[in-house]
Amino acid sequence: MTRNTPHILVVDSNNATLKYIEFTLTGIGYKSTLAKDGLEAIEKAKNQHFDLIISDIYLPLMSGNDLVRLIRKTPEYRLTPFIFLSDNNEEETWIQNLNDGADDFITKPFKQEVFISKIKAHIKKTQIRKEITDSSIKNKLNFDKGNIVYCTPKDIKFKLPQQYLKTPIKHVHSDKELFTCLRKEQVWRIMIDDNATWAISILDKISKTIEGLIPIDILISDCRDTEKFDYLLTNHIDSFLYKQLDERLIIHQINSSIQQELNLKNKYFNALNTAAKQSPIRFENQYNEDISDFNIQVIHQAYNKLAGGDFYETFSVDSQKKIIVIGDVMGKKWDAWFFVPAYIAYIRSTINFFLSREEFDFIKSPGKFLKIINQSIFKDLKLSEVFTTLSIVTVCSQTSKVSIASAGALQPLFYNAKENKLTQLNIVGTLLGVIPDAHYLSLIQNFNQGDKLLLYTDGYIEAVNDRTGNMIGDEVFLESIHQIMGKASIHLSDIEYQLIHSLNISKFDDDRTLFLVQKN
Asked: 313 to each of 16, 287, 342, how far by Cα in Å?
């Protein structure tokens, strides 16, 4: 893939800092845009595409934390790396920054080589993440889920007859609708009416966001408008469709291009499916074990019986101690599955090595294990290019304690039986392999009778409610299972049943894993 020059937005009220960072980024071949406050940054982000955002925490008009929260509400910047600059070294501040949506932080005054190293690491991860995510979207095999996104003015004059197209067409009337659709929907093609000035004005941003992985067609009203043609040709346009043509010809062009992509997908389907089935890595769909008065359960469901990126592994320390790791390689199906065996190999060998040597206590410091794994992954040229979340949970029935450490995973849920309260635990951490010196916190949770800990992967929260058409999300997920978590003893199949029926989920579009620890 041909990559564009990375474009970075830098936000700081200090002009000297802005210029120094601009000089540094120029020196490594990166393009930068400068903003002196959060409002200016938001305005620039509306009209341009940025691969990374750097911001000071203390800004005029709005704080850096307010800025990152607003940025994360913008669909196209939901996954864009956001790095804070700060002279505050307090751990609580770092945790707050991460919880608000930041990916990393650089303390002031910073050394230029450290700054460059972190920026390059995040840019590299961004490029790989786009390749994995966009390739995953492009290569979904469920043809009936594909959409043509049609960017139109609000007063639509030229319409395409849905009944003759081989895939549904979705009309969007603003940049927010477009980028939301690109994030949530399976998009086969983007069509832009040349009268949709809102889309034409940000054509460069659209092109850079999708990086050529989704074809863009322009519907032209007047083929003699050479000025408009000259502008459009400066962007990545796959084809021009002329409104003056017979409607049947336009429909034929669209359907032919879609059929070509479908044929290409089908060509590789059988070969990939065979490879997945022959893998030596197997995960049981259900796992259930009692350790004294603790019960441990796992439900692992592949997407449509195809291999995916979710994985888990259990390790016995002794009769009263258990270690469980749960991970998720970013991507869908085979894109993610190909990397799972390598991760499992790293994890198995590292845990078994330290268990045999008894060098540190996994119960007290699971975060140390993540630090060791992260350093190994960072040095691996292939694995360091893949985003992976990993949680490690250790259970000790003797002390009634459960320890948790997280590398970019979703925040686990803890049910306190005494207070009848279900909350998300504040345990976060950098994704594996992003930076070599990542620090991972260990959370030690005391367990009383009836207490429960639940971990889950994004296959659940990214499912869609058939009735509303909305993605489930963390808050709805939590609300849906609150009542069932209050039962004295539960089974994970009860949670799945509750989610499917209360949230109107007819199918899941990704592999998914649930992990439960409860004290009986």
From this structure: 50, 10, 13
